[in-house]
Amino acid sequence: MAYAVALCAYLVLRRRFGDNIAAPTRWAVVAGAVAGGAIGAKLLFLFEDPQLTIHNLHNPAYLTGGKTIVGALAFGLLFVELLKKYIGVGRSTGDLYAIPLCLGIAVGRIGCFLTGLPDNTYGTPTSLPWGVDFGDGITRHPTQLYEIAFLLVLASALYFVTRSITRENTVFKLGDAFKLFMVAYMAFRLLCDFIKPYPKVFLGLRAIQWVCLLVLLYYFSDVVRWLQALRAHRRLSWRQI
Amino acid sequence: MKIVFTIVLALVVMVAALVLLALSSCMVSFPTHDNLIDLGVLALCSLGVIIGGIFLIARIHREY
Question: In Å, how far is B13's CA from the nearest CA of chain A?
Fold first, then answer.
């Protein structure tokens, strides 16, 4: 369902905004993203609880059993960047994937919420009125619902960013919709994972949070550029008034 | 030819990735499955297909 929603969103956006990447390159990029995503989703899962992984090294069910979306995004990005560098593609290729990824992950999180405790995506116990009892008598933060709400707001914002990229004199340029998605989602996960009751691997952070930090560091120069462009844009707007 | 090769290889990579992801759902749903080793080998094979497919796509695009 999540894949279908993401694919439909991608096709609608491609028709609405057009695709300026040649077909062979687009297919190569998609294959790179899918390959990186599939491998990364598994790999980061194994580092989420290293002790449990070491205990289950002989257990194929555990080794191939889990997956994480942060690993998929980070390794998808890594594979695509390496592939583009190897085949000599310099331009940004990810803008059309930003909104489909938001919607696909949001639909996937509905499944996570309905699965409940076995999915291991729930939050820490809470006494807040919107806490959810997943069946063990303890009300917890419905972190899946927080994520769905965040992704829907982000998808709306990304639509305006994607639309503004096609115009001139804008804060955002080609490639920024995908970068903004990655920065926003990784920042959200970095914070949201503090209210998840799972093992911390180093300096009080989970493996997922460390990967989020690395991705945020990778895009740090872009965030600085956006802030500077926004400040300049605002100054220009004041002068015009 | 480049686009045909790329599309075919990309589809193979995507199917292998789907197999890999579907296997994880299978493992979670049936953790006491009798053929766990077979499923593990299948996961490794699909991983090999994914990596091989990406390597070939990269080579094709670099050569042309």
Answer: 6
Contact A125, A69 (CB under 8 A): no
- Residues in CB range of A89: below 8 A, 6 or more apart: A25, A29
Sequence spans of domains, chain A: 2-21+91-240
Q: pLDDT band at residue A236, thresholds of 50, 70 and 90? A: confident
Nearest CA among B59, B55, B18, B40 for reference residue A3:
B18
Task: Decide: helix, strand or coil at residue A125.
Answer: strand
* Cβ partners under 8 Å of residue A65, min gap 6: A45, B24, B27, B28, B31
- What residues have CB less than 8 Å from A122, skipping those under 6 apart? A116, A132, A134, A140, A141, A142, A143, A144, A196, A197
Query: Per-residue pLDDT tens for A74-84?
Result: 999 999 999 88
- Positions of E strands within A111-195: 132-133, 139-140
Domain count across chain B: 1
* CA–CA gap between residue A201 and residue B6 (Å, rounded): 40
B49 touches chain A (CB under 8 A): no
Query: Does the beta-carbon distance from A39 to B50 stay under 8 Å?
Result: yes
Distance from CA of A237 to the nearest CA of B (A): 45
**pLDDT of res. B33:** 59
Tell me the residue range of the domain where B27 lies.
Answer: 2-63
Cβ distance of A31 and B57 shorter than 8 Å = yes
Residue B6 pLDDT? 85
**Entry pTM:** 0.87
Residue of B nearest to A34 (CA): B14
CB A125 within 8 A of CB A35: no
